[in-house]
Design goal:
This protein is α+β, with helices and mostly antiparallel strands. It has one domain: Phage tail protein-like (STM4215-like, 2-Layer Sandwich). It contains three helices and eight strands; from the N terminus they run H-E-E-E-H-E-E-E-H-E-E. The strands form two sheets. The chain has a six-stranded mixed β-sheet with strand order 1-2-3-6-5-4. A two-stranded antiparallel sheet has the order 7-8. It is elongated and about 75 Å long. InterPro entries: Phage_tail_terminator.
């Protein structure tokens, strides 16, 4: 099974190759963070059962780039475009190696509060935890069922 944290770690590894001197944060920024920095956020996670052993997973991750700010606390457009270009070295492959899995993704860029934001959507199949139904244990649990204080079983 794919662990979401492993996806974050793999993303950090790939982005670090593209923007080597950057800092990386998962979930929230620390006070007094250094730039350039990337903030990784889990936006959406949906699992749908396909069969007894397989599920479809949709995972949306947003990565926000915090670059050097001008006197108006805005990241320079030229810097944003350079970072976009650097990231496309990795993004143009449309796949991410996560341990023994190769996950496909789609991506888009946009602006989030005047910061460069990268939205990534992963769609993949994953295994389910096999929970065995113990019929004997279930019978013991329902041996005595009461409705309105009257025993029905």
């Amino acid at each position: 099974m794919v662990n979401i944290l492993d996806i974050f770690y793999s993303l950090i590894g790939e982005i670090r190759k593209c923007v080597p001197d950057s800092k990386h944060y998962i979930g929230n920024l620390t006070e007094g963070f250094k730039t350039p920095s990337f903030l990784y956020l889990l936006v959406f996670n949906k699992d749908t059962r396909c069969s007894k052993f397989v599920k479809d997973t949709v995972l949306d991750i947003q990565i926000i780039y915090f670059g050097t700010n001008d006197k108006y606390s805005k990241t320079d457009l030229e810097e944003k475009l350079k970072v976009m270009h650097q990231l496309k070295q990795f993004l143009s492959t449309f796949h991410l190696q996560v341990k023994d899995r190769n996950l496909k993704f789609s991506y888009s860029f946009n602006d989030a509060d005047d910061q460069l934001a990268l939205n990534m959507q992963f769609n993949f199949k994953d295994g389910l935890v096999d929970t065995k139904f113990d019929e004997e244990q279930a019978r013991e649990m329902i041996e005595r069922i009461f409705i309105n204080e009257k025993e029905v079983i």
